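ARCHIVE CARD
CATEGORY: sequence design from structure
SOURCE FIELD: tokenized fold
FIELD CONTENT:
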């Protein structure tokens, strides 16, 4: 499932439906570990060999992405944080918290920016639904992000597909795209972990200082009474 080239070739005549289904699931159905960026890049590069019409391909990807975000938004409004656990395999609380931080920082724009960040793009529509973000604004940002992502990543594969080195090394390139896409998520996770440690350290210092301050106040009060 994580090898876009094999996935597309093995899909045969169902390739367009497979691409749409994967984009739909990865966009909002809480399963972020599917090829997203690398899938679009690869299908753009191989669309001629796969017998796909480029305009039809892009339209299918856009519709699937918009529908996936819609599903994520509705799940967020209906369920909220109930399904998430810190020790879960897929529905990790840390993934949700990263998306919440991303959304609180960028607001509606996060729905466009998150499109280009794996894992975060899966959970951001959910967070928007949980936050009761106005639906009309959500829909507008959702459509804008889906169109920008579908067109840019797919066309990048089309344009670079003419480069012989890339065409011959698509498997390696797909892995590099996945790694490059995950780097921002890893950096954000490290920052989140560091902030947590700093907060814990600060709380520990404050807890140690507070009794000393209280003792000092008591001594001062006793001396004043004398």
């Amino acid at each position: 499932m994580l090898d876009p080239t094999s996935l597309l070739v093995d899909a045969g005549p169902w390739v367009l439906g497979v691409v749409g289904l994967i984009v739909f699931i990865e966009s909002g159905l809480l399963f972020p570990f599917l090829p997203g960026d690398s899938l679009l890049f690869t299908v753009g590069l191989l669309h001629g060999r796969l017998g796909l019409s480029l305009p039809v391909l892009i339209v299918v990807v856009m519709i699937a992405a918009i529908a996936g975000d819609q599903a994520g938004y509705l799940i967020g409004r209906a369920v909220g944080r109930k399904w998430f656990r810190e020790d879960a395999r897929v529905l990790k609380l840390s993934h949700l918290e990263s998306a919440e931080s991303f959304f609180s920082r960028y607001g509606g724009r996060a729905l466009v920016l998150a499109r280009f960040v794996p894992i975060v793009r899966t959970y951001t529509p959910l967070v928007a639904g949980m936050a009761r973000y106005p639906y009309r604004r959500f829909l507008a940002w959702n459509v804008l992000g889906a169109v920008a992502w579908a067109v840019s990543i797919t066309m990048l594969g089309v344009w670079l597909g003419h480069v012989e080195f890339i065409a011959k090394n698509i498997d390696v390139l797909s892995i590099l795209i996945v790694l490059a896409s995950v780097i921002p998520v890893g950096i954000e996770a490290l920052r989140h972990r560091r902030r947590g440690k700093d907060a814990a350290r600060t709380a520990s210092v404050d807890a140690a200082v507070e009794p000393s301050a209280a003792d000092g106040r008591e001594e001062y009060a006793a001396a004043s009474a004398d």
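CARD ANNOTATION: The chain is about 75% helix and 0% strand. The chain has a mean pLDDT of 75.
SHELF: design records, drawer C
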